[in-house]
Amino acid sequence: MMQALAAILTQLLHVALVVLAAPLLVGGIRWLKARMLGRRGASPLQPWRDLDKLLRKRPVLAENASAVSEVAPYLGFAACLTALALVPSFALGMALAPLADLLLVAGLLALARMALALTGLDVGTAFGGLGAAREMSFASFAEPALLVAALSFVMLAGSSNLDQIAAALRDGGFGLRISLALAAAAMLAVAVAENARIPVDNPATHLELTMVHEAMLLESSGRHLALWEAQAALRLTLWLALIVAIFLPFGIAPAGAGPLAWALGLLVWVVKMAGLALALAVFESAIAKMRVFRVPEFLGAALLLALLAAALLFVSTGLS
Amino acid sequence: MLRACCDVPLLHLTPRAIGSASERFRTFPVLSALGLVILAMLLLAVPAAYGGPERGWVGRLVHAGSLAGCVGFMAIAVAALLGGAPAPLPLPFGPPWGGARLALDALGAWFLLILGLAGALASLFALGHPPGPARSLVPYPLFLAGMALTLAAGDLFTLLLGFEAMSFASWALVAADHEQAENRHAARRYLGFALFAGACLAAAAGLLAAGAGALDFAALRERPPEGWRAAAILALVLAGAGAKAGMVPLHAWLPLAHPAAPSHVSALMSGAMTKVALYVLARFLFDLCGPAQPVWWGVPLLVLGVAGAVLGGLRANLEADTKTLLACSTIENIGLILAALGLALAFRGRDLGGLATLAAGAALLHALNHGVFKTLLFLAAGAVLHAAGSRRIDRLGGLIHAMPVTAACAMLGAGAAAALPPLSGFASEWLLLQSLLAAWKLGDITLQVLAAAALALVGMAVALAAAAMLRLIGLVFLGRPRTPRGAGAHEVGRLERAALVLAAALTLAFGLLPGALLDLAGPAVAQLAGAAPPRHGLGLLAGEGAAAYLPWLVALLLAACLLATWLLLRRRSPQATQRGPVWNGGFIDPPLVFGDPLTQPSAGGIAQPLRRMLGTSLLAAREVVDMPRPGEPRAGHYAASFRDPSEPFLLAPLARATDALAGRAERLRDFSLRQCLGLGFATLVLLLALIAWLEGG
Questions:
Q1: C-beta atoms surrounding B408 within 10 Å
Q2: pLDDT for B204-258, tens place per residue?
Q3: Domains of chain A: which residue ranges?
Q4: Cβ(B548)–Cβ(A99) below 8 Å
Q5: Helix B424-437 vs helix B404-417: angle between axes, to the nearest 10 degrees?
Q6: How far apart are the C-alpha atoms of B134 and B130, rounded to whole Å?
Q7: CB–CB contacts below 8 A, A to B
Q8: Which of B41, B223, B260, B380 is surrounded by the fewest CB atoms within 10 Å?
């Protein structure tokens, strides 16, 4: 009974934490990038202020927009929030842990992506169709890389459940494995592509011929735009939290631990996420955006790394 | 806590309840009922022959009778799945050396359920649809009866009889609209592939029967083939059943034939007929070839299946015709099912019973899910063709405003085809991906690397399917109309809408309760995998409970998040939505009724990224831009094309070989009488020698 209550409490705390942290993460990365480029940069709280401003504005829809434009923002946001509720942050053994399957998380992200792409096509504008086509094309290179990268840690943990993977990799004493490092590199590349970051897409530009993600949002405004911005922030948080939970699971509170362990786990999680955010900001500042038709090579390299990781594991399990 | 609730079985069937239910079903003469339904369908062809444009009631009679028969198929299939296999029923005809008989075990019953569902939906749709050419009325019930006879066959003779009836009836349906040259071309190619499939299957059946000395399945199982004979049967069945199912590289007929038939027949061909071919494949390879095959038997199925999944998914992204796009998506889904069957064969050969049940369950569940959502999508394409007057994507657009019900149903079907949770396609593809993630347990490093590559390609195929479905929905139902005819579209009639809504509801329900369906398919899974499957209850389990998927909980969570977001935003952002002219980056459309349709993304434009990224290497896609020099008054032209690899590598050499052989055969005309007699004698001696060798071996 106590355990069930603790599981529900950690789940609620987790959802509150990630919803609060997501805009801060986006703002933090923007601020870090600005500092690195020698600018002062807006406060990390700026995304929160932007969301508040957008919510107060009156949303305008095109005359021929269908119900899709009105429903899709909610659906995309809800799918991302559901997916993020499943990825462990500071504690294991949350109430939804049995549901936290990696393939389901990928499926929910695909649902959010489909909602966004449908919005891009709803009014029948050139930019929207361009962005939607590119987004779906990138996904067909990102999904294989993600699945094969998953093969490595699913083999080691014996399950595709994120909670069990995190627990197994934390306690299993796998140490520093080359295959895990390769899989982590592949996952990072997929995360960069899925979140429309540099070098795949530039989240800071509008009306550029090579843009992908923002092209689908050109007709959104008011609360619809706020929902899409929040969804993008949730997705970035999700991918970083996923990488933290799988590849850096140390310090996370085990299932059934008390509030003290939670507080420690929270502290460690914040430090790890901040570290990843710093790494992302450095990477984005140091690299230029690549051409759209170079992206398959970028994701193909990630797929090759992931395949290499799996092959190394096949050889090592065959030897032992 | 959740672990506990996912273990609760859905149907609350205690052993005693199952026992009494199965007793009741055992006394019910399942096979006699099935035989009568098939016979009634055959008799339905008689009044159908009197059909015509002036006799609308004949069409209604045929389709209402087909609907009733398909509901009967469903009831019989569920009775057989719950009550166990009845004893075979001898038929009053058949070859003299072994009577024909009907039998319905769990495997056949599962596919009969798929046939019943797809057939009932298609017949209901056709009932409300304006009647097509009267010559399509006779083969329609024959087509359904042929498929049912294949599934209910208890011996090889009946199986081949049903299979051929299905092939020729569907050929007549493909050729029904033969005024158009492209339909005649499609029908001719379809007939060629159907004859090839029949010849391969007849040869495989001959090899099986020669080894066992009997035709009925029970006797064949006693003496499974061995050695080269088994390998030859594998090759022949793959070619025969694969050609009918749309397996790569024998898929060239499918993107032509499925669109050529009337829409409800296209739905049946994609939803049910390809599944019947897969049933024949599973019957031969999993059942009649004995309880265990070597592990490598799974490899050709896995390789061909994965190749078909990627090729079909990619082609679906390039096609410009709604029904051709859906047909290519069928190639993709058949590929996924074949890959799952191949994995099940490999796991069974390695004695990994638990994993074999996982892969076999993925194959059977995906066959059912695809049977329903592809029927839904083809029916929606038919509704669009009827209401907006075109199958070409570039002549449609914005139909969500004129046809809201059709659009909503098509979106649900497309979501299932794109494997979005919590719809039905995701559940079965989740099982397939889980079995691929566990395929490293096969041990051999070659197989492990092969399975890892298959995992990557299946992931790509799923993403490609999502892109293709987005293209279909986004261009046909969203945006603005592209032609005046498309702008004048209207919602379809009541019965057609009922068929669409029913199919969409089934897609949703099958997505929410996949565990109950797999439990229903349990005996069929056990037949394929050679091991008892676990009880799934409300969700799906994989790897002895190491991973679980609880779709109803996912749906609840999604709904809760949606509701919470909506409530929160209603309070924080109370301003009503305002309508204004489209922003479109500042571009102002010329003042036409619905803007300039050419400023919208086109079918070729949406396909461009994938055509360049994958199409150039896999489908020899080419883009030719003809840009006039500055000052030249002519218009610029852009043309994009691609070629399926089976055309240059399979069909073209085949056509050349046919021409060469025909040239040789012409020389036979100049033979003298003595040479002709000698030729006949030599053939006779050769055939006798073959018989003697087969009897001896």
A1: 17
A2: 999 998 888 888 898 898 888 888 889 999 999 999 999 999 999 999 999 999 9
A3: 2-319
A4: yes
A5: 10
A6: 11
A7: 290
A8: B223
Question: Which residues numbered 232-271 in A keep a CB inside 8 Å of some CB on B?
Answer: none
Q: How many CB atoms within 10 Å of residue A174?
A: 14
Q: Which of B419, B558, B595 sits opposite A78 (nearest CB)?
A: B558
pLDDT of residue A173: 67
pLDDT at B2: 39
| Dihedral, CA of residue B496, residue B499, residue B501 and residue B507, to nearest 10 | -140
Using alpha carbons only, give the angle B179, B184, B189 rounded to the nearest 5 degrees.
170
- Exposed, middle or buried: residue B570 (CB in 10 Å: 0-12, 13-18, 19+)? exposed
What integer pLDDT is reported at residue B17 of this predicted model?
43
Residue B560: pLDDT band (50, 70, 90) is very high
Residue B110 identity (one-letter amino acid)? W
What angle (nearest 5°) sits at the alpha carbon of residue B63, between those of residues B62 and B69? Answer: 90
Kindly state the tokens that stand for B7: 């273990």
Question: Taking the C-alpha atoms of B325, B329, B334 and B339 in order, what is their torsion angle to the nearest 10 degrees?
Answer: 140
How confident is the prediction for chain B on average, in pLDDT? 90
Cα–Cα dist B565/B686, whole Å: 78
Q: Smallest Cβ distance to A81: which of B415, B561, B580? A: B561
Please spell the DSSP secondary structure of B653-669, one letter per residue: HHHHHHHHHHHHHHGGG
Residue of A nearest to B583 (CA): A219
The amino acid sitting at B592 is L
CA–CA separation, B365 and B429 (whole Å): 9
User: Chain A within 8 Å of B354 (Cβ-Cβ)?
Assistant: no
pLDDT of residue B319: 94
Q: Nearest by CB to A144, which of B459, B480, B579? A: B459
Cα–Cα dist B636/B648, whole Å: 30
How confident is the model at residue B66, as a pLDDT?
A: 95
Residue B618 has pLDDT above 80, yes or no: yes
